[in-house]
Structures are given as C-alpha cells and as structure tokens.
Design a protein that fits this description.
The chain has 217 residues and is an all-alpha fold. It has twelve helices and no strands. Bound molecules: iron/sulfur cluster (SF4).
Amino acid sequence: MKDFETIYLRIREVSPEHHFEFTDSPFWILITTILSQRTKDAVTDAAARSLYSKYHDSKGLENASPADIKAIIKNVGFSNVKSERIIEIAKIINHEYNGIVPDTHDELIKLPGTGSKTANIVLTQGFGIPAIAVDTHVFRVTNRIGLIQAKDPDHAEEALKKIIPEKYQIEFNPVLVEFGKNICKPVSPKCDICPVSEFCDYYHNVYVMAKKVRGKN
Ligand code: SF4
C-alpha cells in the first residue's frame, strides 16, 4: 500500500501554482471549464475573459446571439457545440435555479456538457466543497504511480475518493495538472528528476527497464 500523503506532498512541493481565470464565480468557473475541454489553457482563458467582459453573467449570456458567441470563442475546440451549450446552460441556470449555479454534483451533471469532472471542478473551485476532479493529468499520473489501477475516469474518481483525505481534495486537481504538464508529461515523463520515482510503478516497471535495455544495445 503506497503512502498517499508522502507522495502527494512531494508532488505539491515541485508543482507551480495553477492559474484559474476566475476564482470567485461558480458560474464563470463552470463556463471556463466547459470551454477548456480539448483546448489549451491560454486559449480557454482568453475566450472566457472576452465572454465575461461582454456578457458579465448568466442573464447576459442567455440573451446573447449564438453567432456572436461563436465568433468570440472561435479558437476554442468544438466552438460550435460549446457556444450552443453555453447559452443553454445560462438559460437553465436563470430559469430553473434562479440564476444561481447549483452546488451539488447531482444537479450540476444535469447541465448540458457537464460531466463529473466539470461538476467537481465547480464544486471544488467555485464552492470550496471537497471532490475529486479526474482529468487527463490526474488519470495518467495516479495510474502511472500505481496509487490506483483504474480503467476509466469514473473508476478513478471512486478509487481516489477512498485514498485522498478531504483536506487535500480541493487542491488536488490543480496540483496534479501542473505536475502532469511539467514533470509527468504524457509523452517522455521526466522520471529522472521526479521526486516520487522511488514510489512509482511506471518508473520501476517501464522507465528503469527501458534504460537497462538501451544500455545493453
Ligand atoms: S517517476 Fe515518471 S512516471 Fe512516475 S510519477 Fe514521476 S514522472 Fe511520472
């Protein structure tokens, strides 16, 4: 059994602070997270900033023209689908939730384009409620280390919930995102400078073995 806290604190120590474009508005955290799906951070943040400066809140977005939204978020992945989703979400929040983003996982995942990861980002970053948001970085890093053996993000969320104390759950996703972008990269992870290599299954079973094979050739 690996010691989660030792591993996590070493990861946190080397991970730069994650930038969130919005920290005080669950609505804009929700919209930004929807925009971020399959989109680089800088593109997402610029699109979210432009939307915010033009429409301000869910009422402004509800009455926006779809063509205008599409033009503003044109550099974002799947901008056509997302522009319609954003307007739809604004409408639902205004008419079914009195303009207030719901603060439960069950209600959030009823919104268009809002899966468990997005819901949990809104809960943790918008409301300060502990939850585990499993994105591609969290999934890859925790499986590589061997903290979990999960076949998909839903299983990963369940497994991680059991091993991550609540006091770390809010910060866990942003810390792992930065660690995944800077050290445990999708391709060519920097295992030689990684502070948790001694605990990592990938390091012992893949990285070290590959080095040995290369040494023999
Ligand atoms: S040792 Fe390599 S694979 Fe394991 S966590 Fe560190 S960078 Fe990722």
